[in-house]
Structure formats: structure tokens, C-alpha cells
Probable G-protein coupled receptor 132 (Astyanax mexicanus), 359 residues
Amino acid sequence: MQELAVTQPFVTVMNGNVNLTCTTPYEENRIPLVVLYSVVLFVGLPANLATVYLTLLQVRRKNVLGIYLLSLSVCDFSYLLTLPVWAMYVNGGHRWLWSSLACQVTGYVFFTNMYISIFLLCCVSIDRYVAVVYAVESRGLRRQRLATLVTFIICMVVGLGHVPVFNMEEGNAATGERRCFEPGQSTAMVTGFNYARFCLGFFAPLAVLVFTNRAILANVQASTGLRPCQKDKVRLLAVAVVLLFLVCFGPYHIILLMRAITYHFPQVQEDCHFEKRIYTPYTISLGLSTINSAINPILYVLSSDNIRKEIRSCLAGFKSRAGHHQRSTDSSQNKMHSKNSSDQLSTRDQEKTRIPTPC
């Protein structure tokens, strides 16, 4: 049954007209994707749960950056919750087991949280840029209320922007071969969506990340009050932020752009070029985008001085409680030992009183 699902052809729609039948190599990406989703889920879920708690402590202490980091952790956690469903879907030969509404909701949560995460990464970089480059001028601008408002607007805009997901034919998984958001069909709506995702969801955020991190790096390098090791740390963090973004989101959005461009050239699609050569890289690139959610807690949260202090404080408190518990246990054992010793002495004295004395 699975082999039939793998090799069964489907009809490609070009500009609204049915032209040819192409076969998609579903089996080629099954094992790599399932392994990738499993590893990301295993690492990302506990990491994001921990960072939700740590960043919540920072929010309570009026830390502005904590608002963005807390929202990022919640967003990544929600994003990761969809991975078990996609892993089952891929492992089952790309056959959706549930209703069309479940497919649409899962796709909506997946893609919405992906782009909310991307824009929150921009917010983190912009906030750090303002705090470093305009340290004095930004004292009245960096407020928790403003950060909360910005986060709310991002969620609303991205959420409303992905509402068309519920009307796309790709989300209709109840009929035919029961595919869920497979990129086999090229329509005007999907093409426009791909252009928007590349320009607004990748290229613009990349420009923001490059500009802000480059400015932060230049300002820190020119500072005379920082030690060389501190400057090296800032440089590594700036390079890691941009590099991680490119590795995780670059391949996927470049392929989206290629798909959008080939829509205008039907002769390219007549050779089933995407199905033969691009489909497997496309699915692997989509899997790569999930890695970002597992690494964000390490890259952003653990690189924060305040968060590291919070972790050390929590560990110190844990060790203190463990030591106190151990001392209490030892004290209780000593008391029990003393009590047992006194009981034994008392018993011996009673036995001695029972021994008859000679006449």
C-alpha cells in the first residue's frame, strides 16, 4: 500500500489547465525527514519549555527583551507541536489520515508560527541594536508595553495573512490521494503567496538581521571599555544569528521563489522539472527550517547575561535546597540513632533488674 502511495502520479495544474501527469518521489525523503523531525522535537521541546520559564522570570523583572524572547519561545514551542503530525504524514507515504480541517489547521499553525518566529527574531535584533547603538536615547523608548504591542501586531498581521490557507486547494485532504499542502499544483494564488513569503518573510528580515548585527558589531568593536573576549563573544553571536537564519530559511525560500518564477514559464513545467529534481530538496529544506526552533533557545536565551544569571541562581537555589535536605536527613538519622541507642541501654538496664541477686 505504501509503495502505491509513493509512485502514484498526480495531475499538475498550470494556469488553471490540466496539462500532464507527473510522478513525485515521496519515498526518497521519508527517512531523512522523519529522523530530522524526531531529533528537532526531542531537543526543541524541553529547550523551549525551559526558556519559557526563564524568560517569564525576566518579564516579571521588567526586562524589555524578555517580552520578545518569551514570545519567541512560545511561538517555537507551538511550531514544534505540529512536527509529530508531519512525521506521521511523511512516514505514511504522504497520505493524510485525518480530515481536511485538521490538515488546514496544522498547516496554518505550522506556517504562521514559522513567520511569527522570523519577525520576532528581527525584533530581538532591532531591540539589541537600539540598546547598543542608541543606549542613551533609547531609555524612554524601550518599554514593555511597546514590546507587547509590537508582538501583538506581528501575530495579528501574520495570522490574518495566512487565512487564505483555509481556502487553498492544497489543504483539501479529504478527497483523491489525501495529500496535505503538497507543492504539486501551481496556481495564481499559490504563486502570489510564494512571492510574498520570499520578499516579506525572508529577504526583508534577512536585510534587517544583517544591518542590525553589523551595526552592533561595529559599535562594540569601536568601544574602548570592553575586553577583547567580550568583543569576540559579540562577533560570534552576530555571525551565528545571520548564518543560522540563512541555513534554516534560505534554501526553503529560494525554492519557493523558483516555484513562483517557473509558474510564468509553462514549458519548464512540461518536463516535470520540479517533481523530478526539486521536490526532494524542497521537502528537506522545509525540514531544515524546523531546526531554527530548536537552536533559538540556545542562541538567544542562553547568550543573554540576565538569563545566564537566572540559570546560575536557579542552580544555586537547587543545590542549597538539596544540601539543606541532606543536612535535615542526616540530622534525623542522628536523632534516630541516638534514640535507638538510648532504647537499647534502657532495655539492658531493665534486663539487669530482672536477674535475681544471690543470697
Notes: The mean pLDDT is 82. The beta strands are 10-14, 17-22.
